[in-house]
């Protein structure tokens, strides 16, 4: 008896993965995006005032805070842009790659050699970057976004400059650099080491005795060390993705025009307070290095390693994928 057609399997896998991973991803993005300076802040008159924003010290603490302030709807912020991008990528895989095994979750590049994999990954980055930015902003915005008011959501998430010139999203200071370095570490360093030390480990017919314990331990140690570089890049990319680009003829590409560019009629999602604190748009990060330096100076170096264990779990999952 023939099984269900591939499109049905693909759709079912997508629905299940969205139901599970959208809340988990949303909590991760909010936890890493939460601005929590350790020192005093200067008010408009130059006086020192203590920071009064939310202090959330763990991933699960953020989960409880989101649920308490925004309920289940808050856990599914970012659902629509995630669903649209997942659907489009799934259609491309189904039609263009002609695969009999629909994939879900995080998509891996086809095995085409190091340079082919790097080219594929960078191409996917270029295609998916605007959607990723919209997803991160829809997760972290304090405003309530309706699922089917697409244009209204864009007016809330994008500045007038970004609406007029969408390509400005690619010029977000430091974002492409952070994502590209992340891809290079995974593709040019971890990928070849995995194939060298653990060839065929993802083969379903592989027996436990066929895997060298010594080589597996060596690779896991290398993977753990790589997390020291990957996690800060992911935190920095999150901060840069939610930093909106304001520009005009008399300002450069990172000058902030924060006055009068928001829709004042948009309802706030939290009835009592904002779930996370966001950095003042009037003082933007100027790039990857500047973002890292300011995070360390203002919030402490441990901020760069928020939810490092999720990065490690992702790496461990890729070993056997």
Automatic annotation (TrEMBL):
Q: Where are the transmembrane segments?
A: 6-29, 75-97, 117-136, 167-193, 213-236
Domain of life per record: Eukaryota
Q: Where are the Solcar repeats?
A: 5-103
- What is a biological process (GO) this protein takes part in? nucleotide transport
The answer to whether keyword Membrane applies is yes
- Which Gene3D superfamilies does the UniProt entry name for this protein? Mitochondrial carrier domain
Protein name as catalogued: Mitochondrial carrier
